Every structure is written in C-alpha cells, then in structure tokens.
Amino acid sequence: MGMDATAPELDIKPLWTRVSQHLRREFGPAAYKSWVQPMVVTVQADGAVSLGLPTRFMRDWVLTHYADRIRDIWLAADPLQRPIGFDVAAPDAAGAAAPAGSDAIATPDLDAAEPTTGAPAPAAGAGRTGPRLVPAAARGEPDPTPAREVVGAPLDPRYTFDTFVTGKPNEFAYAAAKRVAESERVSFNPLFLYGGVGLGKTHLMHAIAHHIRTSDPNRNVAYLSAEKFMYSFIRALRMHDTISFKEQFRSVDVLMIDDVQFISGKDSTQEEFFHTFNALVDQGRQIVLSADKSPNDLEEIGNRLRSRLAMGLVADLHPTTYELRLGILASKAEQLGVEVPPKVLEFIAHKIVSNGREVEGALTRLVAHAQLVGRPITLDTTREVLHDLLRAHDRRITIEEIQKKVAEHYNIRIADMSSARRSRAVARPRQVAMYLSKQLTQRSLPEIGRKFGGRDHTTVMHAVKKIEELCGTDAGFAEDVDLLRRMLET
Ligand SMILES: Nc1ncnc2c1ncn2[C@@H]1O[C@H](COP(=O)(O)OP(=O)(O)OP(=O)(O)O)[C@@H](O)[C@H]1O
C-alpha cells in the first residue's frame, strides 16, 4: 500500500493532505475522525514535524494505537524524511489544537468531500484468527455510528444460549449468565465474566442480551465494547455533549460492556465509567461485564473501580478441554449445515488445543475448502488444508525462536525486536517477525505485541497486513519470508 508515485512533495500542506487521505482509507472514517482529524501539524525549527492533539489522553491513545502506522505512511510520502512526533497542543479559540504563533496546518475533514466507504476502523478484537463471519459492528467494535445509537449495538444472531456448548470449563459462567438473563430482578451486580482469548465471553454476553431482548422487549439493553464506550465518551467530550452521553447510558436497564480491560489506564474514561456504573447500580439496574482477566488482575485500574467490579459475581471461563472442543465443533458443523465425519472432528479437537475461535476457524476453513473444490471432507484433506495450523501445534514454535531467526537473517540485534527504534532497517524485520509469530504460533495479537516490547495489538495487526501486502507486490520479499518460514518449520 505504498504512496502514489507522483512528483515529490516538499510542501507540508499537500503532503499532509495526501497522508491524511491514506490514513482515512486505512483506519476507516470513524477512527480517522476521532484520532487523526483533530491533529494539527506544525514544522519545528529543527525541521521535525509535530502532530498536535488537543489532550494528553488523545495523544497517548494515538501513540499506542496509530503512531507506528502514521510514521510509516508519513516516511513513505515525505521525500525529506522529516521525523514526526506526537504532542499535546492546547486548543486555540477556533477549537483547533494549534500552538499559538506557529504556522499550524489543520487536518482536512475528508468526510466533507468523500463518501464514507473506507475500511472499518482497526479495533479491539480485529485480526481474530480464522475466517471472520461476524461484522465488526456486531461485535460492538467501533464503527461510524453516532454515540447516541450505541445503545442499539447489533448482536450476532448466532451467539445464543442454545448454541453455547457447556462443559466443565465454562459451566459456572454459563449458569451465572443464564441466571442474569432469566431473572427479572437484578441478580448479581455486576456479573463479571472473564477468561482467555476465544473462550466464549462475547458469545455469552450476546446470549444474555438476546435472551433479555426477546423475553422482555421493554427492557433497555445496552451492549457495547469498552473501546466503543471510550470512543463515544471522547467524541462526546469533543462535541461538548457529555450530558447526553451520560443520559444515554444512565437510562438503560441492563448495561453490558465487553472487554473492559480496554478501559484500564485510560483515566478519564475510567472515571466516567465508574460514575455511570455507580448511578446504574444505585438505580437497581443490571450490569454485565467481560474482560480477559479477573478484576484483581486488571492492571492500571483504580482501586475504587476494582473493588466495585469485584463486588458482584465474578465467573471465569477456563481453557477448553478436548470434550468441549469436540462439542463446539459438532455444534458449529451443524450450524454450517455440513456433514463432517466424526473422525475429522475428533482429529481437529485433538490437534487444535487452543480455544473456541481457533477450532471454529479451522472448521470454517475446512468446509470452505471442501465446498470450493467440490471434494468430500476426509482426514487426508483435513491434514492438507490445515497443515499450517497443525504444524504450528505440533512443533510449538515460540515467538523467541522467530525473533532470533529473523534477527539473524536480517543481521539486526535481537534486542531490536523489542526496542523503540523505528528506522526501516529495524522496523521491517520486526514486522516480519510479528507476521511469522501470527502465522506460526497460536498466540493472540495482544500476546504477540507484548513480546515485542509491549506493543499494542493494532501494531501487530498492521505489521501482518503490511507484510501480506509486500508479499503480494514484491516476489523477492515474499521468497525471503517464505524461506524464513521454512527454516522455522523444519
Ligand atoms: N462454549 C462455546 N460454545 C460454542 N461456541 C463457542 C464456545 N466458546 C467459544 N465459542 C466460539 O468461539 C468463538 C470465539 O468466542 P468469543 O468471541 O465469545 O470469545 P471471547 O472470549 O469473547 O474472545 P476475546 O477475548 O478474543 O474477545 C465464537 O465464534 C464462539 O461462538
């Protein structure tokens, strides 16, 4: 996704416009509007470029989620290769974040000129493994919906109690979720569901919401991701409309927030969440939350909020067992309406030992392959179609091994896999290592990010996309990556 090869542009304004267009295409209109458009660009005396954001919170968010990509795109476009930094610039009287007295350039409002056809915003949970059948919005991820409509976030129709397979690892969480969904009175407040990636938290949350909406359509159920809650809150702050933001959340009967770990460390959102939470509890409304960790293990959550989160019922989803995986596979095969030989289901459940999402991804791939090539599903075709997944499980390649091999191959220091250095000579091999980690291990994007110096999952996602793109356009590069993969797999 390189920049167009037009005449070099030295003037910062048209250059920034081009970069902005690229960013909007890549991040999608919602993320562009929330995070890029508020930026004001200034060139410093030493030639460096500063991107100013109106608040520290926004600057920090952009730094962790978008800075790497913005830098890459900027450097690909700027013939002078000026370094860019991210700063806080107090808003001026016109509402733009321009430092007084400088030649500040505002970021264009591309929505005024272009229809909103951009790709969806990179978001929590994006980059899940396996074919993605659920639209982003259905998972409560950020989309261009205005804050006021958050309360009606759509649910995935497949995620009901009926389709949730229970077993030892999840029977407690399931029973608690059912109790909350079926009681007319508030049961445990909040119900806090937690567990590792792909173990069915979102599925259970949607099931609760479906059940309540069907059994009592008068009850107002708000289901959204914590990231979306945050987006809406920041947007309301920007629009000076926090009152209706508060009203909207405080008028719900059941508030359900998925992936609350996203709120940790975001002080102002945490504070707002805490107030909303208290107001709802005081009014006797039900709250259901999910996270990847227990309240006690959520880092950077204030003590007040932590104890509030833990005061209801905390139920965890444990890693899957063979029996549970087999049950999930059988249920998904039935939903897909395909006959899969029991031997094949057993084989997958035995070989793919991670989570519900992984086994589902494997099955979907298998079924899609069988339908496309018109061949029956057998053990042999399964081995063939899933060879990469199976190999990753057999060999258990570690991220450390990948980092070492890639660093050797490109002749850089292993330490640079985790360092903050951003020069291309280091950044590209790091992206290759992230890409191979995604391909060859069962690690989630956040887990991979952590192994690369605590980077965010969106950085890993961008790396994966970038390397896929480069492999598609540059045969030499693709060969290189393939060689590395083969070296690691043998
Ligand atoms: N017990 C189960 N029964 C049926 N399907 C399941 C079960 N556990 C997981 N799945 C399926 O696995 C996939 C991933 O589950 P889900 O999105 O709910 O995981 P999650 O815990 O929310 O993960 P994340 O932390 O990544 O958001 C979904 O398609 C879901 O239907």
Automatic annotation (TrEMBL):
The keyword Nucleotide-binding applies. Keywords: ATP-binding, Cytoplasm, DNA replication, DNA-binding, Lipid-binding, Nucleotide-binding. It is found in: Cytoplasm. It comes from the Bacteria. ATP binds at G198, G200, K201, T202. GO terms for molecular function: ATP binding; DNA replication origin binding; lipid binding. Residues 1-90 are annotated as: Domain I, interacts with DnaA modulators. One of its GO terms (cellular component) is cytoplasm. Residues 398-467 form the Chromosomal replication initiator DnaA C-terminal domain. InterPro entries: AAA+_ATPase (IPR003593), Chromosome_initiator_DnaA (IPR001957), Chromosome_initiator_DnaA-like (IPR020591), Chromosome_initiator_DnaA_CS (IPR018312), DnaA_C (IPR013159), DnaA_dom (IPR013317), DnaA_N_dom (IPR024633), DnaA_N_sf (IPR038454). Residues 154-370 are annotated as: Domain III, AAA+ region. Residues 113-131 have a biased composition (Low complexity). The keyword Cytoplasm applies. Residues 371-490 are annotated as: Domain IV, binds dsDNA. GO terms for biological process: DNA replication initiation; regulation of DNA replication. Residues 187-315 form the AAA+ ATPase domain. Residues 98-152 are annotated as: Disordered. Plays an essential role in the initiation and regulation of chromosomal replication. ATP-DnaA binds to the origin of replication (oriC) to initiate formation of the DNA replication initiation complex once per cell cycle. Binds the DnaA box (a 9 base pair repeat at the origin) and separates the double-stranded (ds)DNA. Forms a right-handed helical filament on oriC DNA; dsDNA binds to the exterior of the filament while single-stranded (ss)DNA is stabiized in the filament's interior. Belongs to the DnaA family. Domain I is involved in oligomerization and binding regulators, domain II is flexibile and of varying length in different bacteria, domain III forms the AAA+ region, while domain IV binds dsDNA. Oligomerizes as a right-handed, spiral filament on DNA at oriC. This is Chromosomal replication initiator protein DnaA. It comes from Roseospira navarrensis. The lineage of its organism: Bacteria, Pseudomonadati, Pseudomonadota, Alphaproteobacteria, Rhodospirillales. The gene is dnaA.
